[in-house]
Design a protein that fits this description.
Chain lengths: 198, 243
């Protein structure tokens, strides 16, 4: 089927999004064509604006407007607790819980020597400098509960030992709403290890 | 025609993410050799597969032969190697054994000896063992599995009683008359250690201890031999080994 050049170009561009194949891209392209010109301009403008204005905070690594970080500059946050996550999107997940009111530190990855990611690539010197200079009393490690995340957590715990901070790891256990019957043995054994008195 | 559903005992030697919540795993299996498979939804917290399709996992896997990759449909975990949780130094060692096996194995045919070697290596890593010696024994035995074992008993060129020269290019020990320009002198202790590591079963490596000089000499010897014969290029995990 022959499409007009501009439509073909739009489909090709939409195909660059993760998880979007030619069929989905075609459906999105038709959706955009069905919108008013103002709506399409608003979508395009929002994308460009986000690209121009957003970046990663040089101190904590969170997604922020280029001139100010909403987490670092929030005086209402507990400055003595630091939560370490792998990716900037993990911060949004943590914020969604509404439980945490401390500061963040984003590693932008986990130790993965097979992919060429070692301690230098995670810029851990920045984290050490932050802990040494600020009055941090507790560091919570919230890397992913997989081999890479656990290895990174172990490495961080050892790295931060010389500093007088309490280093903790988020708990492991069963997902809410699930049946114990379907849980795997590793999750169950970790849930048993981390049991709490009632 | 190959069966659409098949099962294999495997070790996961590499993983990478695919799409939103899937994971591609590289398995070394006892029966089917090395191949990649997809674990659908394995990155979701409620996935039944999540815990069993991570690196350092040993299990019995069932696959459905998909169009591009086999799909992991179920698994029965046998063992998960967790030594790196207590000692972060062991993480690069475990990955080094995995990367070496991955790069060495083309995946064209099954090699149960190689499977057993990696399994032994991972099992011994958490015990009381000299990690550097375990890696050297693993390297030499892996080369042996592929038919590339260096000749350590007599001159590879003329067959005479050897001197203490090792030539990666000539494939092992050489006498002074036959030595090429790349031949390097090694000590009698290092030669004896290398011979011993090739011959003894992996389990006995735990009983061995060696001096720093011998270990360093042996590391250089195996690295140069692998670089020349096996074209493995730069192993990313090797530079992170705490040796």
């Amino acid at each position: 089927m022959v499409y007009p050049g501009s439509f073909k170009k739009l489909v090709e561009v939409l195909c660059r999004f993760p998880g979007v194949g030619p069929k989905t891209a075609q459906r999105l392209a038709f959706y955009l064509l069905g919108l008013s010109r103002d709506d399409v301009v608003a979508i395009a403008r929002a994308m460009v604006e986000a690209k121009d204005k957003l970046g990663f905070c040089p101190l904590c690594g969170c997604l922020s407007e280029l001139d100010s970080c909403s987490y670092c500059n929030d005086a209402g946050r507990d400055q003595s607790i630091l939560l370490i996550v792998q990716e900037a999107r993990d911060v949004l997940v943590m914020e969604r819980t509404g439980q945490y009111r401390g500061l963040y530190h984003v590693l932008h990855g986990a130790l993965s020597p097979l992919d060429g990611i070692g301690p230098e690539e995670l810029k851990l010197d920045r984290l050490e400098k932050r802990i040494a200079e600020k009055e941090v009393s507790e560091v919570i490690i919230a890397t992913n509960p997989n081999v890479e995340g656990d290895a990174t957590a172990g490495y961080l715990a050892r790295l931060l030992k010389p500093y007088s901070v309490r280093v903790t790891r988020i708990a492991f256990g069963l997902p809410v709403g699930g049946d114990i019957e379907y849980a795997d043995d590793l999750t169950l054994s970790r849930a048993l290890d981390g049991r709490r008195e009632m | 025609m190959k069966e659409r559903i098949f099962a294999a005992e495997g070790l996961i030697i590499r993983t990478r993410v695919l799409g939103e919540a899937d994971r591609i795993v590289t398995l070394l299996t006892r029966e089917e050799g090395k191949f990649e498979a997809v674990a659908r939804g394995a990155r979701k917290t409620k996935s039944k597969l999540a815990a069993g399709v991570d690196i350092f996992a040993h299990g019995r896997f069932t696959f459905h032969r998909g169009r591009t990759w086999p799909i992991v449909t179920s698994l029965d975990p046998i063992e998960r190697f967790n030594w790196f949780r207590d000692n972060p130094d062991l993480y690069p060692y475990g990955l080094y054994l995995a990367e070496l096996t991955d790069r060495f194995n083309s995946g064209e045919e099954s090699c149960p000896e190689m499977f057993q070697l990696l399994l032994d290596g991972w099992q011994l890593l958490g015990g009381d063992v000299d990690h550097a010696l375990l890696c050297r024994a693993f390297e030499l035995k892996l080369a042996n599995c592929g038919g590339y074992s260096p000749q350590m008993h007599f001159c590879t060129v003329c067959g005479c009683e050897v001197s203490l020269l090792f030539s990666p290019k000539q494939g092992g020990m050489v006498c002074s008359r036959c030595s090429a320009t790349d031949a390097v002198k090694i000590t009698a202790g290092t030669l004896a250690l290398a011979k011993h590591l090739i011959e003894i079963p992996m389990a006995k490596v735990t009983k061995l201890r060696a001096g720093a000089e011998q270990k360093s000499e042996l590391a250089g010897l195996t690295a140069s031999f692998f670089a020349y014969h096996l074209d493995l290029g730069d192993l990313k995990t090797r530079r992170l080994l705490p040796e």
